[in-house]
């Protein structure tokens, strides 16, 4: 407990970044979260709320601004919920992310000695996202708003140009804005559950230039589709125009039904030599430039020579599996979402990859079952779980299977550290760790880890 009370003003130095990009500093050992501050700032802050172990304060005055402050390139960066760190120097962002991984491994994992390879940043940390979802609504003056939600709310910040999305989005949004106004298309209103157009989803194949536009609608029909197609087709690379039906009262953006309007209901992209078919509902890594680097590291860590049996758990649409299949004898992919496994099988087929097999189910069910019933074997196991990490029962099966190497790809360093600790208390050794910046200007970080027996 701290001696601080609400409205107290104190001077602190900011030395860390919180998960929403806010600054974190300490006053007499007591942690304060302060919006609008940056690592390295010395600031006068006013306490707003105190809890047992930490509190919240607001910035009153910057006494010495941090040398890591930069002017964001995007004029709406501070309001928009899309980027949390644009006002922080990019090299500092990378350092912060690398430290976050290192700290989790030391504090949660208890690891003291391990090789941490330097974080892999982007050469050009802008225009990297291959998927964007723009909510559609109305501005206060009644005009059509197309943009992004403000941080932690559902008010839409009208946007003409997003600096982390594909460049072609600017043309798509401008074309659709004109169309919506010309034909009086009613934007969806969350409160009344009325109106038609909810979201605009765009996907771009970075290595093929193929473009998809999918309009998410609260209905099953869209007016003036011929004009819509005519206008959108003018955009270079346009390959797929479709509708997605979502009539639910929900925050989930996409519904399950796709109504193709023009072109194929998918686009194709490539990572390295492998082609992937992407439909509006497919999970696909959002930063293709960094994904290639991430998968190259995973492949390098797996150290395959053509004789190995590899399991890729949490395989999604088979992206890593097919990458590994190029160098392994046989790859088994396991994934919980049936549609993703359908995509994985198709992706194997279009690449003429016959040494990969995909199974639907929870990794923690499928792997133990296959192990006890069929006594399956693994030389290398790759896992890429969601934020909550792996179930302990899965880690137990991995330990019993005793692969030569384990490659862990993670989007959450805290659960990563927890799982590594469990594996390394038994038979494994943490060999190498490398972070990759998949989400520049956000606080997220991706990590690849190699463990060996
Ligand atoms: N490796 C893929 C996807 C990683 S995202 C890629 O690089 O593209 C994590 C994946 O785990 C998601 O596709 C999610 O659907 C899947 N998943 C979540 N829980 C799971 C579980 N218990 N067993 C298997 N897959 C699971």
From TrEMBL:
Binding-site list for S-adenosyl-L-methionine: 285, 314, 335, 384
Active site: 411
GO molecular function, one term: rRNA (uridine-C5-)-methyltransferase activity
Domain TRAM: from-to ranges: 3-61
Keywords from the named record: Methyltransferase, S-adenosyl-L-methionine, Transferase
The keyword S-adenosyl-L-methionine is annotated on this UniProt entry: yes
InterPro entries given in the database record: MeTrfase_TrmA_AS, NA-bd_OB-fold, SAM-dependent_MTases_sf, TRAM_dom, U5_MeTrfase_fam
CDD domains: AdoMet_MTases
Gene3D superfamilies: 2.40.50.1070, Nucleic acid-binding proteins, Vaccinia Virus protein VP39
Any one of the GO BP annotations: rRNA base methylation
EC number: 2.1.1.190
Keyword hit for Lyase: no
NCBIfam families, per database record: rumA (TIGR00479)
Entry's family note: Belongs to the class I-like SAM-binding methyltransferase superfamily. RNA M5U methyltransferase family.
PANTHER family: RNA M5U METHYLTRANSFERASE, TRNA (URACIL(54)-C(5))-METHYLTRANSFERASE
Protein name: 23S rRNA (Uracil(1939)-C(5))-methyltransferase RlmD
Gene it is expressed from: rlmD
